[in-house]
Amino acid sequence: MKQLLFEWKKIIRKKMLWLIFIILVVLNTVTLDRSIDSYSADCITETAESYQDYIDTITEQTDSMKSRFEEEKDGFNYRNVEKIEREIRSISMPLIREGSYQTLYYYSSYSAGILFVIVFLCALVDFLFQSERRQGLLILFKQTREGHLRFLFSKVFIGCIVTVLFVLTMELVSLLYLINRYGLDELESGIQVLLLFRGVFSNYTILELVCKALMYRCLSAIGVFIIIFSLQLMIRKNWVPQLIMLALTIMELLLSMKLTSSSSLNYIWAVTFFNSWDIKASIATEMNLNIMGYPVSHVVIALIYRVLICIVLFSVGVWMYERQMQIVVDGIISKLVIRIRTIFLRAFRTVNICIQEWKKILVHEKRWMVVVVLLFVFFSLFHYADRDREYAEFKIGEYHKLLDSCQGRITDDSLLYVSKKRIDLEEQLDRAYSPDNIQADGILNSLGFEEEGLQILEEQRDRLLSMEGSIYDKYFIDEYSYLEVMKNYRADIFIFFMLESIVLLMTCSLESYDDEKGMNTILNATRIGETGLRKVKSRVFWSFGMIAFLLMEIASWYALFRIDGGVTFGQQMNWFTQINLSTGLTILQFYLLVTVIRAGCYFLYLYILKHIIDRCKQATVVLTVGVGLIVVPLIVFMVFHMSITLLLIQIFS
After folding, report:
1. Which residues, in sequence order, are CB contacts of 490 under 8 Å at separation 6+?
2. How far is residue 111's CA from residue 213's CA, in Å, rounded to a whole number?
3. Burial category of 257 from C-beta neighbours within 10 Å (exposed 0-12, middle 13-18, buried 19 and up)
4. Rounded CA separation 595/542 (Å)
5. How far apart (Å, rounded) are the C-alpha atoms in residues 247 and 315?
6. How far is CA 298 from CA 175, 189, 272, 290, in A?
7. 495: CB partners within 8 A, 6+ apart
């Protein structure tokens, strides 16, 4: 018990770990908010009658399949049908109440939280175990009266507690965010109220489903923690287990994305910890795997597999921990890396202090991982902008089809195109109403959507004609896409939050690293002097801040450019027909103004952050104050559903 209390007190004092805890919880919530826009807006709910019809249909299908496999009663197919039949008979009609159930829908659809869990668990194991190995303390701990086994089990126990605490905090914050945004669902209603869960043959209420999901995710996170901890026991070099875990994460992520429950490799699909975390895959999917001719639920198989993997890896880790010196030593791989590094240093030897500062940050402080995160966010924004467009209504889709043929500056040809399209559509409608046309219903349905789309384009033309100025100075533009980008305050907040967080993590130890290593006295005595060193550090700080800002702005402008290739950037903002603006700025000028204001706010934050870094000699203090400077305006903007773009639109309204 004393060992457990000691480990708990030690982990409580790790301020940096708890700061990472808070940052990752906030990042998960921001990612959830960001990802909601990529899900389908159709939260389809069931009624008691439609669900009963579904059960009747499934019952008929199982009876038919059972008779088909009657001759192979000892085979998997027959037993599988029998198992499904028993589950259907055991379920009573769930209580289905009317409601939107968007909270449950979005919570069940979001599964990216496992990535933040893996990042936190890597940091947790480092603070819990690797930090003592780097200090050479593990040899002393092995020689204590309790021995190494109790020492290791105490670390695993405390690690599991912190893991569960992180998962519960992250999940409860996500639920509270969704409840605040969409309201609280009927907790006593059966989960079959959502079409997503109609294939679950169990009498779960929504409250029971959430509790079960929390349990699954806590167990999955504990399994990941034991895997990471076991890898650290086996391999002494700090970065090698992290590299193996990164490769394992990428492999399992790709498998969970590429494989499906209906594929021939569904056994592999079932046991990936990404699917163990995913509510759709673990709870909403009913699948039985063939185990020696008997159907066994894929959830049970995944649980058994994870338990066995954890037992085997942990046992091997303990065995290797017993038989090796528990300090960081240079092995063959380390010597090879040093040799390669020496060759490159000879080829690219430099005495440039600025380059040495970059090397210190990226290599010695391992901030290259922050650069990887920056590039990942950058390319993710490009991927999001390139996504296929989905239109909530057919008429909007038809409107965009017509707009593609006349988009850009208005000319006689584009006006003639709209008029000619109306004439052609009227002729097609006349033919469709002909009594000789036996396909009138299908044709009218298609032409009806096309007519509604044409009406939207004609309304845009008529409003542009009624506005001041020559019609030939105006543009046919995709106002729906422009307004979607302008009003997407969540994207602006996400980009600004990620940008400031990345710069903070990259530069928080710019001054404190040398101070903690006791190098300031020696460095200040060099020829360049203290003043020169401050200038070099300042140059590194501002250059990274500029690079990060330019990358994010390029991604933001690409989302705007993706709409029509920039051919309508000359349209004045007061010529928008769906919003009333009083400014004569063009779209290009308006977004240049937005960029200037963004840059002003961002560089004001950098200016304050630079002064904090210069005054404080501890990275933890800089991180704490920097997070406060980020989170406070973030909360304000989220509460008021506001961004710089929307603020300007309100000013010009």
Report:
1. 33, 34, 36, 37
2. 11
3. exposed
4. 18
5. 22
6. 27, 26, 11, 10
7. 381, 552, 555, 556
Largest CA distance in the chain: 98
Picking from 162, 134, 228, the residue whose alpha carbon sits closest to that of residue 24 is 162
Find, among 452, 479, 476, 481, the residue nearest to 464 by Cα.
Answer: 476
Q: Which of 361, 363, 115, 376 has the alpha carbon at shortest distance from 246?
A: 115
Residue at 393: amino acid letter: E
Residue 75, token pair as written in the block: 């085979």
Alpha carbon distance 538, 545 (integer Å) = 11
Q: Which two tokens stand for residue 516?
A: 């903690």
Written as six digits, the tokens of 618 are: 């501890």
Judge whether 29 and 169 are in contact, CB under 8 Å. Answer: no
91 contact partners, CB below 8 Å, separation of at least 6 = 55, 201, 202, 203
Residue 421 scores a pLDDT above 60 = yes
Q: Report whether 645 contacts 560 (CB < 8 A).
A: no
Burial class (CB in 10 A: 0-12, 13-18, 19+), 22: middle
Quick check: 499 pLDDT over 80?
yes
Identify the three-state secondary structure at position 409: strand
Place of tokens 């806590």: 218
For residue 158, give both structure tokens.
């405390």
* Contact (CB, 8 A) for 629 and 24: no
* Cα dihedral sign, 79-84-85-90: positive
The helix (run of H) or strand (run of E) holding residue 503 is: helix 489-507
For 323-422, strand residue ranges (E) read 408-409
In our burial notation (b when 16+ CB lie closer than 10 A, e otherwise), range 329-366 reads eeeeeeeeeeeeeeeeeeeeeeeebeeebeebbeeebe
Side-chain half-sphere exposure of 174, counting CA atoms within 13 A: 32
> Contact at 8 Å (CB) between 407 and 474?
no
**Residues 652/576, Cβ–Cβ less than 8 Å:** no
Residue 432 is classified by DSSP as H
CA dihedral in degrees (353, 358, 359, 361; nearest 10)? 120
Surface-to-core class of residue 425, CB atoms within 10 Å of its CB (0-12 exposed, 13-18 middle, 19+ buried): middle
Q: What is the mean pLDDT of residues 557-576?
A: 82
Of all helices (H) and strands (E), which one includes residue 651?
Answer: helix 644-652
Instruction: Give 57-66 pLDDT, tens digit per residue.
Output: 777 777 777 6
State the average pLDDT for the chain: 76
Q: Has residue 167 got a pLDDT over 90?
A: yes
Distance CA 254, CA 247 (A): 11
CA distances from residue 478 to 37, 273, 487 in whole angstroms, order as listed: 19, 42, 14
DSSP code of 473?
A: G
Beta carbons within 8 Å of 135's beta carbon, 6+ residues apart: none
